[in-house]
Amino acid sequence: MKKITSKKLLNYGAMSAAILGVANVSGQIVYTDIDDVTINTLGSTTSVDLDQNGDIDFSLDLPNFTGGFGFVGFPGVDQGGGMGSTDNVFVGFANGNFFYGSNLAAGDIIDATSPTTDPLRRADNNFYGCAYSSSQFCGDLVDAYVGLVFQLNGNTHYGWARVDVNVPDANSGTMTLKDYAYNSVADAQIMAGQTLSIEDNTIEGFSSYVSDNVLTLNARTPIETISVFSISGQEVISQKLSNTIETIDLNGLSTGVYIATVSIEGTETAIKFVK
């Protein structure tokens, strides 16, 4: 298992809320990459230990229940009877007497405003091949995100786990756990898929906006460099710049959320934008 803690300081700059789509994210993101774990038989399980302290924060299971095959999440250790073992919860919702995990997209915010399941209750992400209409992890899914809310030293922290799911019918399927992360700052939000840490570090007079697939940068002194990253940390653009007003062509990027670091007179700031 490989543990990666990102220490790069970033911030969002001065984009409007309409462009950003979400609020600022601050804190230290602790990201854990793992060798992909696939479970494909009834009764099999894999666990998520977000802070790597030896305690299981969440279990992701293919439960051996009488109705068939499905993908279920438990807070803490699977108790076998449908109840979890901690006060941790999933980002999700209730429908009748059941709770369901929300299938989050990369960039979705996980924080105190996120609806959640109840403590000690399982999340029926896919039950009996999605016989339950509220199940959101149906069919073939690649890079789906499970939102996680857990308690650490008496404080609330937010995180995510990334999974692939294939449950074609009520009797067969697989679930693969790929990686996970959490914000080590109590009560600080995280974006689904986020691996880079973001801190306040603004440059006076700097601003930016996106329009028609062009990112425009404005500064009081010449802008030196820009690097654009996906929220998972992959660099997709790197350019040297020299003017106080610069434009960056975004046509080559896929639709999604990006973080750009900008260097001005040796100081780095950052913006987050949606393409």
What is the structure about, briefly put?
The protein has one helix at 17-20; strands at 2-5, 29-39, 44-48, 58-62, 70-75, 89-90, 92-95, 98-101, 103-104, 109-110, 123-127, 139-152, 155-169, 172-183, 190-191, 207-211, 214-218, 223-230, 235-240, 245-249, 257-264, 267-274. By secondary structure, the chain is mainly β.
Number of strands: 22
Largest sheet entry: 7 strands, antiparallel
Could you say which structural class the secondary elements and strand pairing correspond to? mainly beta
Roughly how many Å is the radius of gyration? 20 Å
Topology:
Layout: E1 2-5, H1 17-20, E2 29-39, E3 44-48, E4 58-62, E5 70-75, E6 89-90, E7 92-95, E8 98-101, E9 103-104, E10 109-110, E11 123-127, E12 139-152, E13 155-169, E14 172-183, E15 190-191, E16 207-211, E17 214-218, E18 223-230, E19 235-240, E20 245-249, E21 257-264, E22 267-274
Antiparallel strand pairs: 1-2, 2-14, 3-4, 4-5, 5-11, 6-12, 7-8, 9-12, 10-15, 12-13, 13-14, 16-17, 17-20, 18-19, 18-21, 21-22
Molecular structure report:
This protein is mostly beta strands and 275 residues long. It has one helix and 22 strands. Strands 1, 2, 6, 9, 12, 13 and 14 form a seven-stranded antiparallel β-sheet that branches. It has a four-stranded antiparallel β-sheet with strand order 3-4-5-11, with no helix packed on it. Strand 21 (257-264) and strand 22 form a beta hairpin.
